[in-house]
Write a structure and sequence with these properties.
Strand content: 5-15%
Number of helices: 22
Largest sheet: 4 strands, antiparallel
Oligomer: single chain
Number of strands: 4
Strand order of the largest sheet: 2-3-1-4
Shape: flat
Order of helices and strands: HHHHHHHHEHHEEHEHHHHHHHHHHH
Structural class: mainly alpha
Helix content: 55-70%
CATH architecture of the largest domain: Orthogonal Bundle
C-alpha cells in the first residue's frame, strides 16, 4: 500500500475502535435500564469484553499489519468477532425483536469507510449470517418480519458496497492524477521514479537486465519564444505520442522536466537500450530532434541515481557534439552491489537468520588466502561466493523452504539451479569465469555431483573452494529442515567426505584458517 492509503486505513481503525467503544456504551446503558430482564450480567460481560478488545487493538502494531499480506484477513476477523458478539447478545436478549439486532448495521457502516469492495461483500454476508443465527436461536419468528429485516440488511450491504467501490475508484483516480503529467498524459517525475525503482527491485530479484533512456529536446525554448507556448505544448504532446509508438507496451514513459523525458525498458540490456534509443532519435527527428542517452542495469549501475548519471553523461555528450563515451564496464563496487542485492533476496526467501551468501564468500576467501591467491583473484572469489546461490531465485518456495526430504522430481529442479545461476551471472560482461565457477559449484571430486558430473581436476579450483565454504556454513547455520551443528562436528563431517565429495586440500585449508583465526562462524 502507498503511504496515503496506509495513513487512511490507520485513521479508520482508530475511528472503528471509538465506534466500538461508543456502541458498547449505548448497549451498557440499555442493559442498566433493563436490568430486571434475563442474562444482564452475561450481556454486560460480553459488552465489556468487546470494549476491552477495541482498547487492546490500540496496542497492536497496526501499521505493520496494514502493510502486510494478512491485512484483510486480520480486519475481517475483527469484524467477524464484533458481528458474532452482537448476534450472541441479541439472541440472549430475546431474539430478532431485541434492539441489539440493529447493531448489525454498524459493521456495515464501518466497512464502507475503509474496506475494499471484496471485503465489504464478505462483511455483508457475515452480517446476514449473524441475523439468521439470531432467528434460529429464537425460533418461530414471523416469516415476513425476517424477510423484511434480511432485505434491509441486504440493501444496506449493497449501498455500503457501492460506497466502498466509489472510494476505491476515487483513490485510484487520485493516484493516477498524482503520478501523471497533466499535459501529455505520461508519468510525471514522481510516477516515473516509482516505476523505475519498482522495476530495478524486480531486476535485482530476478537477475534480468533493465534499460533506461533519457531524452532532452533540442531547441525547445526557441519554439516557445518564437511560436508561443501553445505550439510548445502541442510539440510536447506529439513527442510523448511518438515515443509511445516507438517503445513496447510494457515500457514506461515519463516527463521528468520541462522538455526532458525518460523511458524505462524492463528486460532490456545495453544493446537493446541503444537500439531503442536510435529508433527514438530517428522518430523524433521529424519534428522534435532530441539528444539521447542510455544506461543499463547492472552494467552501468545498480541504482536509479547511477543509471541516471550514466545516461545523463551520454545525453550531454551527444548534445555538445562530442563522441559518446564507451559503455562503462561493471567495476567491482557495482558488481558487488548487484551481487549483494541478489544474494540478500535469496537469503530472505530462505528465511535465513544470517547472510548465508556473505558468510560463504568470507569462508571461501579464507581458503583462497591460504592457497596464496592475489587480491584480484580473491575479489572474484568473494564475488562468486556472494553469487553462488542466485539460481535459487528461480526456485519455488514449496521446494526452497520444504522442511522434509525432496522427492526425485524436486531434486531434478534443484540440480538445474547451478545452470540457471551461471546463466544469470554470465549476462554481466566480464564475469564469464565467475559464471563457470558457479555452474561447477556443486560438482564432487568423485564425479557424483551435478550438473555435469565433473570429477577431480576437471572441476575448477574456485568451484571446489565454494563447495567446501557452502557446506560448512550450511551445516553451522539453522535450516528449516534441520538444526545447526557445531564447528567441530562440521569440520569432522567435511573431513569424512574429503576425497569423495570435497577437495581434501580445501577442507584442511578452511579448518586451519578457522583455527588460526579462532573463528567459529561468520555472522
Amino acid at each position: 500500500m502507498d503511504p496515503t492509503s496506509v495513513r487512511f486505513r490507520l485513521r479508520s481503525i482508530v475511528i472503528g475502535s471509538w465506534l466500538t467503544i461508543g456502541t458498547v456504551a449505548v448497549f451498557v446503558a440499555y442493559f442498566a435500564a433493563t436490568w430486571d430482564r434475563p442474562h444482564r450480567p452475561l450481556l454486560l460481560v460480553i459488552a465489556l469484553a468487546a470494549s476491552a478488545f477495541s482498547v487492546v487493538m490500540r496496542w497492536v502494531p497496526l501499521e505493520r499489519v496494514v502493510r502486510s499480506r494478512i491485512r484483510e484477513p486480520f480486519f475481517l476477523s475483527w469484524s467477524a468477532l464484533m458481528i458474532g458478539l452482537i448476534a450472541l447478545g441479541a439472541s440472549l436478549d430475546g431474539g430478532v425483536l431485541s434492539p441489539l439486532t440493529a447493531g448489525l448495521f454498524l459493521p456495515l457502516a464501518f466497512g464502507s469507510l475503509s474496506y475494499p469492495l471484496k471485503s465489504m461483500i464478505v462483511i455483508g454476508a457475515m452480517v446476514e449470517a449473524g441475523f439468521f443465527v439470531i432467528v434460529a436461536a429464537e425460533g418461530g419468528v414471523d416469516g415476513p418480519y425476517v424477510l423484511f429485516y434480511a432485505g434491509c440488511l441486504a440493501m444496506a450491504t449493497w449501498m455500503c458496497a457501492w460506497q466502498s467501490l466509489s472510494h476505491d475508484r476515487q483513490h485510484q483516480e487520485l493516484e493516477r492524477v498524482s503520478r501523471a503529467d497533466p499535459l501529455t498524459g505520461c508519468l510525471n517525475r514522481r510516477g516515473f521514479e516509482e516505476r523505475l525503482n519498482a522495476d530495478l527491485a524486480r531486476a535485482a530479484r530476478t537477475g534480468r537486465p533493465l534499460g533506461l533512456i533519457l531524452l532532452d529536446l533540442d531547441g525547445f525554448k526557441q519554439i516557445n519564444d518564437t511560436r508561443g507556448h501553445g505550439a510548445g505544448d502541442a510539440l510536447l504532446r506529439w513527442t510523448v505520442a511518438a515515443i509511445d509508438r516507438t517503445v513496447r507496451p510494457m515500457d514506461a514513459v515519463g516527463r521528468i522536466g520541462g522538455d526532458e523525458f525518460a523511458v524505462v525498458l524492463p528486460d532490456a540490456g545495453r544493446p537493446e537500450a541503444e537500439e531503442v534509443a536510435e529508433r527514438l532519435r530517428e522518430t523524433l527527428a521529424e519534428a522534435a530532434p532530441a539528444s539521447i542517452g542510455a544506461a543499463a542495469f547492472p552494467a552501468d549501475g545498480t541504482g536509479a541515481e547511477e543509471l541516471h548519471q550514466h545516461a545523463d553523461a551520454e545525453l550531454y555528450a551527444a548534445k555538445r557534439g562530442r563522441e559518446e563515451p564507451e559503455p562503462a564496464s561493471p567495476g567491482p563496487r557495482q558488481e558487488l552491489s548487484w551481487a549483494a542485492a541478489m544474494a540478500r533476496a535469496v537469503d530472505l526467501r530462505l528465511a535465513a537468520r544470517h547472510d548465508h551468501s556473505r558468510a560463504v564468500a568470507e569462508y571461501a576467501v579464507l581458503i583462497g588466502q591460504r592457497l596464496g591467491w592475489d587480491d584480484e583473484a580473491l575479489g572474484r572469489l568473494r564475488l562468486a561466493g556472494i553469487l553462488h546461490d542466485v539460481g535459487k531465485s528461480a526456485l519455488p518456495d514449496a521446494i526452497l523452504r520444504k522442511p522434509g526430504p525432496l522427492d526425485e522430481e524436486e531434486w531434478t529442479v534443484v540440480r538445474s539451479l547451478p545452470v540457471v545461476g551461471a546463466d544469470m551471472v554470465a549476462r554481466i560482461e566480464g564475469l564469464e569465469s565467475v559464471a563457470a565457477w558457479i555452474r561447477a559449484g556443486h560438482e564432487h571430486v568423485d564425479g557424483s555431483g551435478y550438473p555435469d558430473g565433473l570429477r577431480g581436476e576437471e572441476i575448477p579450483l574456485p568451484a571446489r573452494v565454494l563447495l567446501v565454504a557452502d557446506a560448512y556454513d550450511a551445516m553451522t547455520s539453522e535450516r528449516v529442515y534441520r538444526p545447526a551443528i557445531g564447528h567441530a562436528e562440521a569440520v569432522a563431517e567435511l573431513r569424512a567426505h574429503a576425497g569423495t565429495q570435497f577437495d581434501a586440500e580445501c577442507v584442511e585449508h578452511l579448518a586451519a584458517a578457522l583455527s588460526c583465526k579462532n573463528v567459529r562462524a561468520v555472522r
